[in-house]
């Protein structure tokens, strides 16, 4: 693997022990994956933010580090909202340890935005190389924005943030971004408009870790977010294309891509509708991945002047929620809660429900194991109606 | 008599101890007790054995990436291996070895199946060499 003279100095320890170790991690990963060189990154999203995941020893390791990040870096969602954790029923000893993890990251210069939607916080452009961790964020960066990232682990994303580079392999290379399987959606426009999570859930199981390309659908950005998040949960899809919609698909078309040679899997309207079943629910959760401004606006519109009958939790990035105080106010007037920093999947606050209704194919895939609850999938409108007891 | 085996350096430093060879991959998260260094995965060929102070040779890591922090915990509890040899390094073990400052090599010229438990071995993770004292 090629290292420039600056990299060599870092590896020799001339810029301190922490940077030396971070460079050693990146070089080791470069060897493991056969990278020939490094590529500079524009941002990082660091996993290993929840105390529930990294535990006492992860915290000790973070505290042992002494350096600052070289590029803007944010965190994955954590186990609680930073401010209103008591309101969510989080025990204070967990909160203390979670806060200690956050302080350790703050000392390293990581911005304490804990979100699976870093693209709403740090502007990311087509062709940018980044080092992101959370599976739906990785999918969105690669597929919807056309940035380039592998799915990073906690230490590798932090190492990339501190050094400002990542090994050049995997999805950073154009040749690894070619579609490998095609999905044709055979359903009425009205069926799939609100059901991209279900389509993603089905497609992810079939795609595994291959790069899929979809034909016959025209999703907007929030629908793409739902589609990719679900495929990253039910499968291991880190990049997908939608013919004529996602940026790489246009480049592939210009370069003569022929979809007809690929294995083609058809998803029908009946298969999509079979995922939705009637069931009594104890709580409703929306915001997996974290809500965009448009989604908060839609939810606020549906809740305006009404009162929820069962818990309705909305999850969003701190930066997005705080930029929209009126929408958050309207939502909370109904008795629903808008939580920042945490999420449906990682929060212990979601552990005490029997059946949770979600509008997300990703949450639908993870809730049974991560929250110990049954999951029901519905459109956003159906979720809000269930919360209102309509 | 000592034999030198060339490998590829993954984590720098020098470590030595008695070889402990596993024919199966190792998952550190839930497979190894971080307090004692004893392999606890049910049915694993090394089940019940301590990896503390050994030169631990196994094909590759498996399981959760949180395993990297378990390797760090083993080191802090003074029950880590002195060095690691893998047939093929993957991120969990490579990152864990670097966090824990455990010398590590992979891709040895001599397959790990030909290495014997109890032989005294020394690893240089910088040059990527394995020295085995064959008494």
UniProtKB/TrEMBL annotation, chain A:
Annotated pathway: Isoprenoid biosynthesis; isopentenyl diphosphate biosynthesis via mevalonate pathway
Top-level lineage group: Archaea
Keyword match Transport: no
Molecular-function GO terms, alphabetical: lyase activity
EC number: 4.2.1.182
One BP term from GO: isoprenoid biosynthetic process
All residue ranges annotated as the Phosphomevalonate dehydratase large subunit-like domain in the record: 1-384
InterPro entries found in the cross-reference section: PMDh-L-like_dom (IPR007506)
Catalytic activity: (R)-5-phosphomevalonate = (2E)-3-methyl-5-phosphooxypent-2-enoate + H2O
Key words, A-Z: Iron, Isoprene biosynthesis, Lyase
PANTHER family: DUF521 DOMAIN PROTEIN (AFU_ORTHOLOGUE AFUA_6G00490) (PTHR36577:SF3)
Quaternary structure, from the entry: Heterodimer composed of a large subunit (PMDh-L) and a small subunit (PMDh-S).
Function: Component of a hydro-lyase that catalyzes the dehydration of mevalonate 5-phosphate (MVA5P) to form trans-anhydromevalonate 5-phosphate (tAHMP). Involved in the archaeal mevalonate (MVA) pathway, which provides fundamental precursors for isoprenoid biosynthesis, such as isopentenyl diphosphate (IPP) and dimethylallyl diphosphate (DMAPP).
Similarity-based family: Belongs to the AcnX type II large subunit family.
UniProt name for this protein: Phosphomevalonate dehydratase large subunit
From TrEMBL, chain B:
Positions of the catalytic residues: 64
GO molecular function: hydro-lyase activity
Record flagged with keyword Chaperone: no
Lineage: Archaea, Methanobacteriati, Methanobacteriota, Stenosarchaea group, Methanomicrobia
Name used for this protein in its record: Phosphomevalonate dehydratase small subunit
Provenance organism: Methanogenium organophilum
Residue spans of biased composition, Polar residues class: 123-135
Pathway(s) of this molecule: Isoprenoid biosynthesis; isopentenyl diphosphate biosynthesis via mevalonate pathway
GO term, biological process aspect, one: isopentenyl diphosphate biosynthetic process, mevalonate pathway
Catalyzed reactions per annotation: (R)-5-phosphomevalonate = (2E)-3-methyl-5-phosphooxypent-2-enoate + H2O
Quaternary structure (record): Heterodimer composed of a large subunit (PMDh-L) and a small subunit (PMDh-S).
Family: Belongs to the AcnX type II small subunit family.
DNA-binding as UniProt keyword: no
Function in brief: Component of a hydro-lyase that catalyzes the dehydration of mevalonate 5-phosphate (MVA5P) to form trans-anhydromevalonate 5-phosphate (tAHMP). Involved in the archaeal mevalonate (MVA) pathway, which provides fundamental precursors for isoprenoid biosynthesis, such as isopentenyl diphosphate (IPP) and dimethylallyl diphosphate (DMAPP).
């Amino acid at each position: 693997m090629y290292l420039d003279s600056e990299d060599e100095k870092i590896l020799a320890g001339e810029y301190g022990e922490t940077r030396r170790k971070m460079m050693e991690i990146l070089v080791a990963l470069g060897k493991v994956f056969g990278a020939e060189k490094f590529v500079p990154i524009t941002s990082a999203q660091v996993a290993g933010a929840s105390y529930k995941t990294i535990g006492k020893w992860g915290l000790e390791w973070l505290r042992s580090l002494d350096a600052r990040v070289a590029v803007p870096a944010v965190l994955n969602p954590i186990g609680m909202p930073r401010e209103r954790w008591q309101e969510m029923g989080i025990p204070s000893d967990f909160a203390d340890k979670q806060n200690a993890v956050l302080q350790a990251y703050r000392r390293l210069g990581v911005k304490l935005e804990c979100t699976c939607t870093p693209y709403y916080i740090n502007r990311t452009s087509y062709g940018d190389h980044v080092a992101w961790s959370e599976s739906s964020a990785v999918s969105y960066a690669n597929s919807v924005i056309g940035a380039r990232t592998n799915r990073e682990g906690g230490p590798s994303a932090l190492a990339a943030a501190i050094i400002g580079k990542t090994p050049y392999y995997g999805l950073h290379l154009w040749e690894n971004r070619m579609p490998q399987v095609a999905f044709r959606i055979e359903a009425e426009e009205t069926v799939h408009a609100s059901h991209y999570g279900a389509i993603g859930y089905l497609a992810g199981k079939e795609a595994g870790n291959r790069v899929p390309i979809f034909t016959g659908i025209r999703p907007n950005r929030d629908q793409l977010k739902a589609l990719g998040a679900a495929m990253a949960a039910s499968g291991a899809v880190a990049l997908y294309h939608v013919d004529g919609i996602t940026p790489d698909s246009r480049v592939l078309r210009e370069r003569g891509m022929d979809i007809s040679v690929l294995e083609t899997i058809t998803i029908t309207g009946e298969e999509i509708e079979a995922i939705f079943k009637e069931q009594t629910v104890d709580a409703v959760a929306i915001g997996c991945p974290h809500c965009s401004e448009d989604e908060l606006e839609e939810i606020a519109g549906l809740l305006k002047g009404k009162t929820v009958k069962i818990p309705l939790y909305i999850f969003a990035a701190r930066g997005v929620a705080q930029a929209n105080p009126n929408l958050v106010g309207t939502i909370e007037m109904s008795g629903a809660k808008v939580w920042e920093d945490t999420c449906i999947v990682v929060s212990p606050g979601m552990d005490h429900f029997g059946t949770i209704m979600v509008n997300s194919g990703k949450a639908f895939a993870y809730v049974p194991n991560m929250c110990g609850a049954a999951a029901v999938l519905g459109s956003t409108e159906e979720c809000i109606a269930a919360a209102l007891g309509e | 008599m000592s034999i030198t085996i060339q490998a590829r350096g993954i984590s720098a430093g020098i470590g030595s101890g008695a070889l402990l060879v596993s024919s199966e991959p190792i998952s550190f998260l839930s497979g190894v007790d971080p307090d004692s260094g004893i392999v606890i995965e049910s049915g694993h060929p090394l089940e019940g054995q301590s990896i503390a102070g050994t030169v631990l040779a196994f094909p590759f890591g498996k399981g959760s990436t949180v395993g990297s922090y378990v390797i760090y915990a083993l080191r802090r509890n003074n029950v880590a291996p002195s060095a690691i040899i893998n047939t093929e390094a993957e991120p969990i073990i490579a990152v864990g070895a670097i966090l824990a400052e455990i010398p590590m090599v992979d891709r040895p010229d001599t397959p790990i199946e030909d290495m014997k438990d109890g032989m005294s071995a020394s690893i240089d993770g910088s040059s990527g060499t394995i020295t085995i004292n064959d008494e």
